[in-house]
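Pair request: fold both.
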Amino acid sequence: MKDRAVIMARASSSKQADQGDTLEAQLEVCGNYALKMGWEVVKKFPLVESGRKMEREYFEEVLAYCENPKNNIKYIVFKNISRFTRQGSDVYREIKRRMRKVGVQLRDIYGTIGKDVNTLESFGLEYSWSRYSPTESSETHEADKAKDFARDSLTQMIGAEIGYVRKGYWNRRPPYGFQNKKIDTADDGERNILIPEKIEADFVKKMYALRCSRTLDDQEIVDKLNSFGYLSRERKQRDRRTRKVIGKNGKMQLTVKQFQKYLANPIYAGVICEKWTLYKPLRAKFPGLVTIDSFNDANLGKIRLVESGTDVHIQYGENLTANKSIKRRSKSNPLYPYRGIVMCPMCNQPVTGSASKGMSGKAYPAYHCSRGHKL
């Protein structure tokens, strides 16, 4: 009877999965390796997720599958240790110990990971201390090297992107109303800015104009825009495991909550204020869709952009829940004992609390800033 094995292939992003070291290529070489070793491949796990994060849902699924005694798995096969984990030697050793407890061995196609040796095998005995891996030093070296490579690559790439955002360029998915455009600059080479997306930009301008007119309440404005044909963007729907496109979603009508989020986003006034700017507003290298005066007028004093020469500042109003359609939540919820007491370090306003639900239906309470600042 052949030993049973599973294959794990991993890419850190959907872009990486489509280029270079593809999932399909990893599955093929690992399958050939298992065939050469005479093992039966009973399941393949193609995953697209970050190998650096401590909580990796689908990676845990691989380990849980191998731990199930009903599956009778002997080996986990992957291309190399960097495809298995980029969390360093400590995490790698812990995973290996976890699999060893259930009789599952790790194998890479390059032979970095060797067979375990029992130093008391000749006596017919075995203890936890008598079993070890002669190749452990090379394995942990590869695990640490993978972690160092990931850190250095991300520092170089993300660091450069942060620097350009702080100069006023844009390095993210374009917000509704905009589209990305590459331009040649004299000092910074080819950089990305936002330009209006005609149909969407017209809707954004109507949102501000209708709020500034003071003739309709928010629900009436939303109903009017929906009657004009507003629909949110169509987006690709991807498989949560492989990140392959399996359908499309979006094309939703406007809601009051989304309408208010649009109005409060300073990007529409040509001002960038986000995590990479440490939530300090700065003028973008491209114009907004409305003027700063229109932005301030539409936001009813709840959020205000103040110009000071070439600089711009954000002020937050005190009456942030003036809209009566927004229901106040109970301040006595025991899940959030510090809500209203702890202040956001960015805007110095009280944090709020809410709970998201996972696929199992379990709620995960957390604190957050209502203005989107990361805590």
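--- second member of the pair ---
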Amino acid sequence: MFWLAHAGGLLGLMQAAQILLMYIAPVRQFGAWPQIVLAGLIGALLFTPIALVLDQLFGLAAVTDDEAQSWRYRILDDFAAMAPPSVLTWVGLNAARHLRLPALGNAPGDATLTAFFGGGPGQAAMGADPAPEPAPGPTQQRTAEAALTPPAVQPSPGTPFWSRVPPSLGRDLVALTAELHYLRVETTRGNALILYPFGQAVAELAAVGMDGSQIHRSHWVAHGHVVSIHRKGERVFCVLDNAATLPVGRRRHASFVARLSRARAHEGQSRPPSAEAPAS
């Protein structure tokens, strides 16, 4: 119980600090890694007095000679001891998600490693000969054409969200997905994981006129890349032209279909999408 309280409390505070820092504009300018380190330091600082209380509750203060020290010295002493391992642990936990490492070979377990480290099907294994690319299907052809065609509304280059997206991904946005305090950005050229608030990114896209909808508490899609909307049991799903299938929240379903219908009508399409029929 003692160590569970320490580990859970410290990780919880670092997670909370990370989320709060994402909403502070000056801090976001520092980049992902400084934010992660700062969140680790803040979490360790906030947890230090809690750790001293836990020592008292579990009867360990006398064993560590804490009772003979002033409370100011005890806080500084515990923080100095706790901060380095806390920051290293927090950086390590975030590195597995933030870094997109390739698979390490062609063993049967490579698919699991690739999925864990965020590698996509387009990333070749280290030391392995690249496999021949299959002939592009209709969906791949549409995606390739879209990559060469600018979106209907080009977001402002000065938008904070776009400043965090790698330029190599282009600006033809397909979807956004929230992953804890990270944001998965999908474009016609690939995807990347950035440290940015999902809600703020959605608000910025709406402000610059991007034609899209938030279909779920964790997903946003661009209307121009929606292929179909279909129902499976009680759930509704949205299929995109990059072969991704994302869930549609019950409360957002009706408004999403209405907005998508208006967008397609504006484009001159005769048949708007429904919950049972393809969107295009």
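Observation on the second member. Strands lie at 173-179, 182-187, 190-194, 212-216, 219-222, 226-232, 235-240, 245-248.
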